Amino acid sequence: MDDTERYDGVRHCRYVDEVVTDTPWVLDDEFLTQNKIDFVAHDDIPYESEDSTDVYQHLKSRGIFIPTQRTDGISTSDIICRLVRDYDMYVRRNLARGYSAEDLSVGFIKKNQLQLQAKLDTVKSKFHTYEEESRIYMEHWEERSKEYIHKFICLFERANVLNLLYRTHSSTMISNIPNEENNTDDIISSNNNWNKLKSKRQ
């Protein structure tokens, strides 16, 4: 951000009534009186200059210096560190949004490297998605297969029981049917014996 953008950013803060531009690094009494400044708020870290080890020491001595507390991830240094750390991600995201490599001051090789990496990440993401969906499907199929196997076993056992009952019932019926061949032989044998006895009497 240039100075103008930084000024505009501060003006949009609802707690800011007025923005004074082109202020000096060291605030003297003349500047404070001219701009009607009652207090100066800044972090308590000593900032050195050519003539002092702490440019805010005279304000601290007068009791008009209010130290501010740093917030993690909000300070300029932390923001710059995050930008440097996640530089590739920011460039890839803005390239995907339609910004050109020239707009982002990215060279041809770096641009293609980032675009290739973005495609690889997309493939990895899709692979992990398919892998997760496949795992869920297999778990579902495993549960269903157990159910099918259980039903099949129950059906098979039921068929065996019915078959056993049918065979037992059939055997009982067969054992109760008279043997006609044996009965015929008995009748013929009785007739022969009767004829023999009759011949002897004559």
Automatic annotation (TrEMBL):
Per its UniProt record, what InterPro entries does this chain match? Answer: Cyt_trans-like, Pcy1-like, Rossmann-like_a/b/a_fold
For bias type Low complexity, the affected ranges are 185-196
Any Pfam family from its record, for instance, is CTP_transf_like
Region feature Disordered, mapped onto this chain: 179-202
Ranges for domain Cytidyltransferase-like: 2-81
Pathway given for this chain reads: Phospholipid metabolism; phosphatidylcholine biosynthesis; phosphatidylcholine from phosphocholine: step 1/2
Record EC number: 2.7.7.15
Q: Which GO terms describe its molecular function?
A: choline-phosphate cytidylyltransferase activity; phosphatidylcholine binding
Q: What protein name is recorded for this chain? A: choline-phosphate cytidylyltransferase
Q: Supply the source organism for this entry.
A: Adineta steineri
